[in-house]
Amino acid sequence: MHSSMFIYIFSLISVIIYAKHHSDVITLATWNIGLEEQLATERTSSIINAIRKKNADIVCLQEAWGGPLILRQIYQSLKHVYPYYEIVDDRMRNYISSKRLPTQTYNPACIPSNITSAQLCLATYCSASRDIELLICAMIKCPINFLALYTNSKCWACIFERFISRQDPSALNYCGAIILPKLNNTSSGIIHISTEEPWDHTIGLMILAKRGYPLKKLAANLFSEYYLFPRGYIIVSVENKQLIISNTHVATVETPFPHAPKGTFFNNKYGSWNEENKGQTIELESIVWNLFRNNRRKYKNAIMAGDFNMGIANVEHNVLALQADSWNYIHQLIDTDGSRRWYDDYTEMHRLCTRCTDNLVVHFPVNYIYDHIFTHGNMFHSCDLFTRRIFDDRVTISARNETIITSLSDHYGVELIVAC
User: Considering only CA atoms, which of 316, 184, 327, 315 is closest in space to residue 253?
Assistant: First the structure.
């Protein structure tokens, strides 16, 4: 334990000294900010302050759930530090970027009659159910109503982010613009016959960058297949650094919600959460690798960051393995010159959990490393790099008419420092 701490501190001091003698230093942070967990609204301002204080050059965020409104809040609060950002759906940019909320109106995310029918069915058959049990009940007892909502992309995005993830009790009404005058309106410029946000899947992903790191979006999408819970990626380039960066949130394997057997839900090809996690991991790596390999004259380095919901064990730090097959898949890939294609310095060198038993937002029974920054082999060999755990502070917030000490998120973050 003490030897690991010594190595950690010595490595950090070495990188700081090295960085002072090199002009080309980049810092990148990845963090699942956990806005689907308890006290999400109360924690948001502390999360934004922590990002500002950390001051990384590029920040990859996951689980910025809550729709365009949350992405707008993050950007508007940090735009003086991070003028550049990328999201999955560019149709939301005007809403997110405008100093004042746009005065245009947006159609309801869902067809109001579909919302009303679903509410009646839920009230009849699922009134005693909560959280995941409510979703299971809806699929079993109200399949026609459920599919009418699920197959409408904008509608499911709104329901997933506000109702399922944030557990907003008024979300179904909001998504269908039903009884809207009674809802909490955030802008006098938005009239009451429409929802206030341009809805579609955000996947809870956002990339922020400082002024010296303009971003160019190369790809952004949902994975080719996911079961109910939207997952996907944003891939950008920092052209002046000849660098490709991907930010992702891959399927969880720790959920009480049962996965549909293969071929039973819109001909799904994955029959378990484990298969879905590995399939999405393979899909992401293939997209990033092909972008990088086919443009090697333009890009010299590549990074894959995010919440991969997988990792290997480390006995010294009491970290258990979770879906290790996905991590091992990336770890064993070979580059065109015969060297390892990807390195995960944080997992291989420092190994502290990022989803931990000491977390105060969610009390976990075991320690895992969910969050990773994979760097391309050439970057690892030609530059000095260091990784460390960040955003593991505890904060004091006001909630439920009391003062509460809690963690910033249910995940801790990881920072990469690269000095070339």
Answer: 327
Which two tokens mark 391?
């955003």
Q: Cα separation of 343 and 250, whole Å? A: 18
Average pLDDT, rounded, for the chain? 90
* pLDDT of the residue at 20: 54
**CATH code of 346's domain:** 3.60.10.10
Burial profile 126-145: b = 16 or more Cβ within 10 angstroms, e = fewer: beeeeeeebbebbbeebeeb
pTM greater than the 0.85 cutoff: yes
> Rounded to the nearest 10 degrees, what angle do helices 40-54 and 68-78 cross at?
30
pLDDT at 177: 83
Beta bridge partners of 373: 305
| pLDDT at residue 152, rounded to an integer | 97
Shared domain for 50 and 69, answered yes or no, is yes
pLDDT of 261 above 90: yes
Measured over the CA atoms of residue 204, residue 391, residue 377 and residue 323, the dihedral's sign is negative
Q: Do residues 97 and 118 lie in contact, with contact meaning Cβ atoms separated by under 8 Å?
A: no
On whether both 175 and 323 belong to a single domain, the answer is: no
Token digits of residue 196: 């206030």
